[in-house]
Structures are given as C-alpha cells and as structure tokens.
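Box 3.1 — From sequence to structure: 3-sulfolactaldehyde dehydrogenase
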Amino acid sequence: MTITVQNFTRQYINGQWREGGSSGIIKNINPYTGEELLTIKGANHADLDDAYSAAQKAQPIWESMPLIEKKRLFERLIDVLQEKREEIIQWLIQESGSTLLKATSEFESSLRMVKESASFLTRIKGEILPSHIPNKENRVYRTAKGVIGVIGPWNFPFLLTMRSVAPAIAVGNSVVIKPASDTPVTSGLMFGVIFEQAGFPEGLVNVIVGRGSEVGDAFVSHPIPSMISFTGSTEVGRRVGELAGKYLKDVALELGGNNAMIVLDDANIEKAAKAAAFGKFMHQGQICMALNRIIVDESVHDEFVEKFVDIVKKLRAGNPVEKTTFIGPLINQQQIERIQKDVRDSVAQGAMIVLDGPVKNLVMSPIVLTNVTNDMPIAKNEIFGPVACIIKAKDEEDAIRIANDTPYGLSGSVFTADIHRGVEVGKKMKTGMVHINDQSVNDEAHVAFGGEKDSGIGRFNGEWAIDKFTTTKWIGVQSGYREYPI
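Predicted structure (token representation):
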C-alpha cells in the first residue's frame, strides 16, 4: 500500500493546515530503508500560542455540547479509524519501524482505547454528600480540567498518544499535541486528519510539530494548559515535571522502566522462556514495558537459558513489512551505538554472550547475555533494544531483591506453578504493574496503567483516566437561612 502525505507537511491549528513559522525543518525518515518520507517546516512560538489559544476557545463550547452530539462524533471517530486502518498501520511500519504484527496490534489497541473513552461520556458523575450544618447539602461536581498539552512518544506513537487524547476529549477537555520528531505523523498529524474527518469542532484538537529545543519548554510552561501528559524518557519527564511544577500544572508522566521477569524454581520453563522472548523482543525491545532483566532461580537457570536461546534463534529480524519478521529496525543510529556500548561494557565486567547476531543498518539481531549482575550497564540501564540479559538468583527472596534494586518501577512478571505464590511475590515487587505467568508487555484500555518511583506519576485508562483528566468542585447548597453566632 502506498502511504499518503496529505497535509502531513503542515501544522494543524484551529482546524486549518498551515505551514510552520520556524526556519528549522524536521525530516521524517523510514528507519528501515533510510528513505525520506517527508519534510516538515517546524512550529515556532507564534504557532504554539495560536494552537493553545484555539484550544482554549474551543474547550468550553465542546464541554457544554449536548451529550447526544458528542456521542455521535465519537461513533464517527470509530468509523474513521476503521476506514483508515490500513493507512495507519502502514504509517506505523514505515515511520516507526514497527513490524506488521506490532503495527496491527497497536492499531487494534488504539481502537479499543477510543471505544473505552467513548463510554466516559456517560460515566462522569458527581456526588451529593450530607452536611453537619442544618438544611445544607454538599454537591461535588466533576468537570474538565481545560486545555491538555499532550507530548507523544515515538515507540508506540499512535496508541500512547491516543491514550491521552481520546480520554481527555471524552471528559470535556481540548488538546494540543506535540508529536515526537521521529514520528510526527503517527504521534501527531494523523490525529488532525482523523478528528477533522470525524467532524469534531475546530480548535478542539491541534497539532504542532517542532523541535524540543525550540518549543519544548514553552509547550509545558505556556500559561493556557492546565495539565501536561507526557510519555517518554525519565530524563525528559523530570524536565517536564520540573517546569509544570513551577507553574502549578498537573502532570501525567509515563516514563522509563527496568522491568523484571522472575522465573521461580517451580515454573513451567518452556512457557516462561516463550513468554520472555515475546516480552523482550516485541518491537525490538523498544517498549517502556519490555523485559529489561530476566531473573531466574539458579535451580532452573541452565534449563531456562537453553530453551530461551532456542526460541530466540528462530526470531526473524529484517524488513518490518514482511509478515514473518518479528524484529525490525531500531528508530535511529544513536540507539544502536548506545546499546552496543552497554553490551561491550557489560562483557568487560564479566557478562557472557551466549547468542549474538549481526547489525545491518538499523536492524540489530537478538543478543542474549548470561552471567549478568544488577550493577552492569545492560541491567542497570533501560536497554530499549533487542538485548536480553539473564540474571541468576539464589532463591525467591534473592530474586525479589534483585528485581527491586532499581530506581524504576513500571511493569513486571512472575512465572510459577503456584498462582498464590506468584501473587505474593508480585505484591513484594515495587512496581505499578505485575503479571503472573505472563510477560510484562500488557495494556488494557479499562485497567489502571502506570508506574512507581522513576517510572512516572499518575494512572491512565478506565476510571483512572476519568479522574486524571477531570477536576472536582464542591458546591455547598444552603436551603434555609443559617444562623451565625455573631
């Protein structure tokens, strides 16, 4: 399928496609072929002001729109998504290096996210509470926060941007999206197209494509947005949180991870190995929830390594368009160089390479390391690439200690024949999400998603998204005259 570049070289502000005002440009490159997909003239501060002003004007009109009209628009949005399914999948493949499997999965998850968000239209509710004061009642209303700034990532660009945009819109907010520079279409400009075609009001969804060095800080510190939703690295997330805190803005931050799978001594090793291979190498390991460390009880360590390597050897790396490809390209050369350095430094500290493969352009074949300790770079740092490190644990207690010995706490996994034992281990893991007898890469539109410690602040999805993207107001109602002691 030939992808289109309709409108994707322009900014989307107040319902209009217009050229950015910056002198800088952003080149959109296919990471597998190296082909330039398109070039975008970047946004400047004036564009940013216009986008936020448009969103501010559109938001109260949208929030007060009749429910039946909002429902109709969300139904049309779902139709537009389904109509553009193949186009979105092809953009994910060609822009972010997604394999066909990953791109298809990402689209389907995004569609479920929109359907879940559509249900928020009738799930927003307030409360009436009693009062200690005679003839008074306390009403608690839930309303939109206003304008939400959304900063999208490049790894799961469509889903992780949609995870903020759809819920924010559903509960009455307007949004301005700043997409990742590596994926300006799937984490931004595509949203302009689909919301425009669905018929949403002008100014409700705006997209500005600009370098972080030019508009990044201003996107957060601008006086109009009341909340910033960011998905990305912990380093950048700290900067977002710092700026937002200075101006007393709320944040939703989904940041890095150093996720561990614990394989206990009673686990089904073959099933654990297969799950680990998926959770490690899906999308080349470029997932915040991907397994960073596989911690295996020493009594089953050698058996696990043997079965795991046998499975990983069969994973095909190459052209992401082809159905049989499981591992596609990394997003850019800097990622390759960073990962290779961590592997070299870890081997110098005693890690052993038990499976190695070639690097061709941006396609890195799987690497498996054993004899890894938690202080080695490959275990200490977030890999975000197709390298698996296996750590031997003395027993269950040691495995939990190793898993928790990190500043991160996003997702995790435990494999065991005893589900109760798995749950108890999971409760001791200092992480926002744990999956028993499954790998760590899971995201369901109706279940709380988020991490602890350096992995972020806040929860996405379901009722937690409703809480995050709304605010509450207390209105006390006195039905009779109140006597005052004065």
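Summary of the box: The two ends are 79 Å apart (CA to CA).
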